[in-house]
Amino acid sequence: MPTAKDKIVLIVDDEPNVRDYLAQILRDADFNVLTASDGNEALKIIQDERPDFISLDLVMPGKSGHKLLYELRKDQELSRIPVLIVTAHAQDELGRDDLEDIMENRVISGPGTYLEKPVKPLDYVRCVQRALGLEETPEDEDRINLQEELEEQLSKAEPHALRRALAALKNKEPSDS
Predict the structure, then answer these.
(1) β-bridge partners, 53
(2) Could you give the strand order of the β-sheet that contains 83-87, starting from the edge strand earlier in sequence?
(3) pLDDT of 52-90, one tens digit each?
(4) pLDDT band per the 50, 70, 90 thresholds, residue 134
(5) Please, are residues 54 and 30 in contact by the beta-carbon 8 Å criterion?
(6) pLDDT (average), residues 104-127
(7) What is the DSSP secondary-structure string of 43-109?
(8) Can you give the pTM of this predicted structure?
(9) Measured between alpha carbons, how far is 137 from 129 in angstroms, rounded to an integer?
(10) What are the phi and psi torsion angles at 102 (to 5°)?
(11) How far is residue 96 CA from its own chain's centroid?
């Protein structure tokens, strides 16, 4: 059975922090990840690398996700790549019409075809796993939930608590420096 390690996911988003966040979520779930900052860069990567899955922002300068998706659907081979739209503009004037067009014309369809930002890591991983027919393991869920909780706690922690936590992770005694 294929695993995440066997799959390449292309993340297309014009916001570097969002692109990096989504890439880290998928890398933590053992996917191979490529990134692009717009539709033009993405098309070149898609043609050269043939990713197994595309995570696509809808609203971007240059070639939008909407335009890229229509281009992909015109190509018999590229049209088979599953796409998940990840957008902050599903409900506003910037992206609502494009998303409605995509759904009404069945450019992509079905559950799990788009997520609204900010995405929850587990929801994101599960969408990719389902689209690729990968097993959804409880270990994935546990790891992602633990990472989210850890990140939340780290953002609030005092320096001495961070030193103790780091020492515990390294399995050694903390120093008071």
Answers:
(1) 9
(2) 32-36, 8-12, 53-56, 83-87, 114-116
(3) 999 999 888 888 888 898 899 889 999 889 999 898 755
(4) very high
(5) no
(6) 75
(7) HHHHHHH--SEEEE-S--SSS-HHHHHHHHHHSTTGGGS-EEEEES-SSSTTTHHHHHHHHHTTSS-
(8) 0.75
(9) 10
(10) -60, -45
(11) 20
- Count of CA atoms in the C-beta half-sphere (13 A) of 121: 20
- Measured in degrees and rounded to the nearest 5, phi and psi for residue 29 equal -95, 15
Give the chain's domains with CATH numbers: 4-136 (3.40.50.2300), 137-177 (no CATH)
DSSP 10-23: EEE-S-HHHHHHHH
Closest CA to 87 of 122, 106, 108, 113: 113
At residue 109, does pLDDT exceed 90? no
Tokens, residue 118: 């900010």
